[in-house]
Specification:
The chain is mainly α. The protein has one domain. 76% of the residues lie in helices and 0% in strands. It contains seven helices and no strands.
């Protein structure tokens, strides 16, 4: 992998990381300004809505865990594949997991959904850029090793943990909207 590719990839990861930090601060400010839920008959409707939202956050946290690159590699890593086949398998799996959960966006904040989309895009970018940096005869094992090395050397490679924390924070705010 040449220096220019590493710099471009690092800048992309830093940009996504800064975007997530911005989203976290925005979510925190929005949640502090939320009014308390109404009393009376609307409480049962509000409770049902909160339950659906909580289920959506649960599913998205599961999605984030499933598309985290270390988890994908552990689940899908096959030593007999070429690097190109592994690249295709990883990106296809990320895309399918995301598409399977796409309806959850109607139950969560736009900031939370944007964080999940950014994670999907970043993971696909990392897989594609690192795969393209390998020689044509590289194996799937070579790609997996390179991906894991990148994730260990770049702390922003753990964006899935940040996104999980954002989703968890929002879910907890639904449970206890008055908590600061």
């Amino acid at each position: 992998m040449d220096k220019q590719s590493i710099i471009i990839l690092a800048l992309a990861v830093v940009g996504v990381g800064l975007g997530i930090l911005y989203i976290m601060s925005t979510v925190s400010k929005k949640n502090q300004d939320k009014p308390a839920p109404a009393d009376g008959a609307s409480n049962s409707v509000n409770n049902a809505n909160v339950q659906m939202q909580l289920q959506a956050y649960e599913r998205l946290i599961l999605l984030v865990d499933r598309i985290a690159l270390p988890n994908l590699i552990a689940r899908l890593g096959k030593q007999s594949m070429s690097a190109r086949d592994m690249q295709h398998l990883l990106t296809q799996n990320i895309r399918e997991e995301f598409e399977y959960n796409i309806t959850q966006q109607i139950y969560v904040s736009s900031d939370a959904w944007t964080a999940v989309k950014n994670l999907k895009e970043q993971n696909m970018l990392i897989v594609n850029q690192l795969a393209n940096a390998l020689p044509p005869n590289a194996t799937g094992l070579d790609l997996n090793k390179l991906l894991l090395q990148f994730l260990m050397n770049d702390k922003k490679g753990t964006l899935h943990e940040v996104v999980s924390e954002v989703l968890s924070y929002e879910a907890k705010r639904l449970i206890n909207p008055n908590a600061r």
